[in-house]
Design brief:
- By secondary structure, the chain is α+β, with helices and mostly antiparallel strands.
- It has a 5-stranded mixed barrel with strand order 1-2-3-5-4.
- The termini are far apart.
- The mean pLDDT is about 90.
Length: about 100
């Protein structure tokens, strides 16, 4: 019981150190990122959806033009595939714990 409480406090402290913020970029897939031409599937939205559906290791990501962020939510990004969005959440390394996508 004490171990569980300590782990909870440690996790809460870790996430408390990183405030929630907004990230702007394009919802894409982790395989193609910014270059969908190699797959010969267009438009980009279709390529993103097909790549994520076909590959078990291919995930939705946010690309801001420089960095690629993994997204904790892998359901909501499907409706924004290939679109520029604002993702709100807490970043830990290169992963965003998503609270909202608009």
């Amino acid at each position: 019981m004490t171990k569980s409480i300590l782990l909870f406090v440690a996790a809460a402290t870790l996430f408390a150190g990183n405030p929630s913020r907004s990230y702007t970029g394009v919802i894409t897939d982790s395989m193609c990122v910014a270059n969908h031409k190699m797959m010969h599937v267009s438009p980009d939205t279709k390529c993103v959806l097909e790549c994520v559906k076909a590959g078990r290791t291919v995930k939705f990501v946010l690309f801001d033009g420089k960095a690629v962020y993994q997204l904790s939510d892998q359901q909501t990004p499907a409706k924004f595939a290939g679109q520029k969005v604002k993702v709100t959440g807490v970043a830990s390394g290169n992963t965003i714990q998503v609270t909202k996508i608009e």
